[in-house]
Amino acid sequence: MEHRPGRPRRPDVDAAVRAATVRLVAQRGYDGTTLDHIAREAGVAKTTVYRRWDSKADLVLDALVDVLGEPPLPTGGGELRETVGWLAARIGDPAVHQLLVGLVGEAVADPAVRAALRQRIRQPFEDRLVAAWGAGAADVDLAFDVVVGSLLHHAALAGSIDTRVVDTVTEVAVRLLSGEA
Hints:
This protein is mostly helical. The protein is built from 9 helices and no strands. It folds into 2 domains: 11-63, Homeodomain-like (Arc Repressor Mutant, subunit A, Orthogonal Bundle); 74-177, no CATH class.
């Protein structure tokens, strides 16, 4: 067994730090939240946060993955409607919305954040869609952009996402995934 210097890590600390991240980003926004604020809110030393995450974006992405959970896997049009509805509900949550908007804004200027978002959020879901629908990767990629982009945009400008929007976005995604578009 490999000896690791220092005290063993407390498993509850990661969860406390992620929860504090969600709360603070929801209250202050991405840009108004610092790792120091998060450490204070979580009740841990700043060094604890800095040792576990390389950057604020890494921590916010971990918090986002944690709060999103696993989406339902759509295998047909009806299930895709359920998945789009699930995503709309998540994006409609002010905390999730702030986490996503902050990371997307960071990804514009930072290729590492862009790659991490793709690897941790987008790619696992797209891989599942390719397998479930038998659709080409390019069609799934475009469908993902249409769904997530439309829902984020609508939530930002309208303040909420109603069932009509979910139904319409689902119809467009089904056409893309089935090769009808």
